[in-house]
Amino acid sequence: MAHIAENIGTRGVSTSFAGFFSRLADAFARRRVYNKTYAELNALSTRELDDLGISRSMISRLAYEAAFEK
Hints:
Layout: H1 2-43, H2 46-52, H3 59-68
Helix pairs in contact: 1-3
């Protein structure tokens, strides 16, 4: 009986590590999207942003929405 409980516990640990690394990879991917979006919008001139209907103060929020909103 102890052997069965040990196997179940070990499997739970490996899946929790897998879940942790999966969430970590997802967080890094989302952060890359945020950084890329922010950099691309920030590189635009004020006139180009105006043509898109975006003010400079909106760049951070738009980058956040691109990366973290579903």
